[in-house]
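Re: [ENG-882] Designed sequences occasionally contain unexpected residues at chain ends

Forwarding the minimal case from QA. Structure tokens:
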């Protein structure tokens, strides 16, 4: 059984390849070290800040932010 983290890694790597960006290009675009990207795509942990930089560089940040509901925009608040 694949863990949620492993699934994120698999999807992220597949998306990066189809984007298409090499790890080096992603490093240059995101400001995240090539070593951190290599570690992440090998299933190792990276910091949340670095993950967010990668998501932003891949133009996926809106998807990431929308995972957590904005409690200020609840129907009951109207």
């Amino acid at each position: 059984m694949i863990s949620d983290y492993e699934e994120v890694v698999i999807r992220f790597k597949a998306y990066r390849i189809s984007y298409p960006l090499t790890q080096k290009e992603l490093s240059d675009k995101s400001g995240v070290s090539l070593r951190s990207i290599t570690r992440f795509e090998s299933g190792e942990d990276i910091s949340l800040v670095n993950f967010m930089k990668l998501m932003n560089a891949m133009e996926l940040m809106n998807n990431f932010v929308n995972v957590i509901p904005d409690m200020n925009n609840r129907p009951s608040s109207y």
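QA comment: On inspection the terminal residues look reasonable. The mean pLDDT is 92. Proposing we downgrade this to a documentation issue.
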